[in-house]
Amino acid sequence: MDNKLLKQKLAEKGMKITPQRMAILEAVYELNNHPTAENIIEFIRKTHPNVAIGTVYKVLETLVENGLIKKVTTDRNFMRYDGILESHHHLYCSNCDLIEDYHDAELDELLKKYFESKNISGFKIEEFVLQIKGTFNKC
Amino acid sequence: MDNKLLKQKLAEKGMKITPQRMAILEAVYELNNHPTAENIIEFIRKTHPNVAIGTVYKVLETLVENGLIKKVTTDRNFMRYDGILESHHHLYCSNCDLIEDYHDAELDELLKKYFESKNISGFKIEEFVLQIKGTFNKC
DNA sequence: TACTTAAATAAGAATTATTCTCCGTTAAGA
DNA sequence: TCTTAACGGAGAATAATTCTTATTTAAGTA
Ligand SMILES: [Mn+2]
Ligand SMILES: [Mn+2]
Ligand SMILES: [Zn+2]
Ligand SMILES: [Zn+2]
């Protein structure tokens, strides 16, 4: 992804544009399989050897708050991040740490319809994420 | 839950029966809103003041491995646990740390049917967990 | 019931991921 | 160019979890 676009994404959210933010946002996009902070640090070190670890965590938090990336939960004790904002679900591998995207507009529609009819009392739904747990044949 | 039943559950899995394991398993059942290790430690301290923290983590891991409890993922940096084994989904509150169970056999059936028709190539599904994010009116 | 032993626990150190603090630097508007 | 609030670097601090080692115990066996 080119710098123009990265700058634009930050600017759209009214965020100050800094090299660190651009590098970290780009890393989340490039490392497309839900990278950890660790993965991101390793990646950006290649081009930005002196970015502080604390900065990476801070920037990731800020990017999440501003809706430029999302957190992906795992049953391990570290966080993972996702640069894909459009609604999608996740295939979690039971054998390894692989989390694959599962895009399915038909499923989204099905869920949306289902919960429109069936409204949950006392709760206002913002979004769904279906965790699909299982194993990949390749694993 | 009485001791007989707790013992039985451990025995069914071929696990050695210890007071610590019984207390921790009972705590997960009693603290029914997806307790953290911290919550569990606090709870069992009332009756078992000298259980080591390391033991709690170890036992929780063992209970998960043996399929007596499940982990519940959050976007915070600690794990939560669930004593309810039957398929169900979760309402995550965006305002606080509340995670409420959402049981819905109709939805389970819908998902099962949907993924039977639509099979995901190269992936064998074991279970679904739908994360329903939003806000409770009371929050 | 007493004996045996592998497995489990207590205590506390160590590790890991993440957050915080403080001070120097910089982006962006005037 | 100047100003300044926001940002980032360095490293200490914290919080959750894991590891290590010695001691204890559950549960099978004689
Ligand atoms: Mn994704
Ligand atoms: Mn639950
Ligand atoms: Zn795998
Ligand atoms: Zn709430």
In short:
The structure is a homodimer of 139-residue chains. Chain A is built from 5 helices and 5 strands; from the N terminus they run ααααββββαβ.
Give the helix/strand layout:
The structure is a homodimer of 139-residue chains.
Chain A: H1 3-12, H2 19-30, H3 37-45, H4 53-65, E1 70-72, E2 80-82, E3 89-93, E4 99-102, H5 105-117, E5 123-136
Parallel strand pairs in A: 3-5
Antiparallel strand pairs in A: 1-2, 3-4
One zinc ion (ZN) binds at residues 93, 95-96, 98, 136, 139 of chain B.
Chain B binds a DNA duplex (30 and 30 nucleotides) through helix 4.
Give the oligomer, counting copies of the same chain as homo and different chains as hetero: homodimer
CATH architectural type of the largest domain in chain A: Orthogonal Bundle
The major sheet of chain A is characterized as:
3 strands, mixed
Number of helices of chain A: 5
Would you tell me which CATH topology of the largest domain in chain A applies? Arc Repressor Mutant, subunit A
